[in-house]
Specification:
The protein is mainly alpha-helical. The protein has helices at about 5-15, 40-70, 80-90, 125-140, 155-170; strands at about 20, 30, 95-100, 120. The longest helix has 28 residues, at about 40-70.
Amino acid sequence: MDSIQEFMDTCHSAGNTFTTITNNNNNTTTVAGTSGSSSSSPAASTTSSSRYENQKRRDWNTFGQYLKNHRPPLSLSRCSGAHVLEFLRYLDQFGKTKVHTPICPFYGHPNPPAPCPCPLRQAWGSLDALIGRLRAAFEENGGKPEANPFGARAVRLYLREVRDLQSKARGISYEKKKRKRPPPQQQPQQQPNIGVGVGVVLPLHHHMPPPPGARTTHHQ
């Protein structure tokens, strides 16, 4: 497909969670973040949204072209999760991320000191972002959520497998850092106020005995 290479170039550069950088030693590094501006102004938000929509439209058109070139040709209504997996594996030939094999001396090394013959693959971040855009485009183009092939369980499992494999092979972690919750503040215990409200209440007509040595007067 003539437009696939251009399609993958834009996938690596626009709106992805991870950006892949290749250095002179043919090593790759994944950098978290997006290519958009970090400004939170309304103009920046509108630009980011427009860039995402344009990328999603290109992804959708490219996937449609892939279905037309499929042998035999495949209609969208007959597309399943298995066909989505076939599409993702097809894209691997245009990958730019070095994924070390277990027999490679640089397996699990985040910054290999020298080149190696390990294959290039699509980065997990690129595939994950791509599936997210295609999943949204499918429903925006009239597809039912329950019939969305991009949300199939097989696709989710495949992405998880790719993430775990690349994390081990490249010696990097894709896990999001959990925010530490502040320890709960201990409320001071209230001490009982001794002497207030704890006295014994006597009846009004109770006869109190006279103190010792006091004179008693008897009324006739």
